[in-house]
Design a protein that fits this description.
About 80% of the residues lie in helices and about 0% in strands. The chain is an all-alpha fold and about 140 residues long.
Length: about 140
Amino acid sequence: MGWMFWALLSALFAALTAILAKKGVAHVEPNLATAIRTTVVVVFAWAVAIAFGRPHELASIDRKTYALLALSGIATGLSWICYFRALSLGEASKVAPVDKLSVVFVLLLAWPLLGEQPSLGRVLGAGLITAGAVVLAVLP
């Protein structure tokens, strides 16, 4: 099972996240909802890491890697806080496509930060994703 399989599963679970979160945030303040969700994610992630990973490698991870993962965690937390706020205010079918503009931002940032070269296919794909997000979010 390669990256495509796991990416499709990720998309499926992200879709379930939007649906379940929209229903859950209906009766809870969005920041509290995010905190509850994050607590579950932390416990679940550690259970998976312990069961299937190598937690004994924690001591061998260098400071730069810890810092990058910590910054990624902060970005994730900020993303979730904004996502739950957006879900509390808007329709899931409109919020989710705009959230997926993260793909376009990754394409734009991967070039200068990771050295990934833009190509005609990537530029066209980013344009289509943007157009799709706008159509889904704006049109009735």
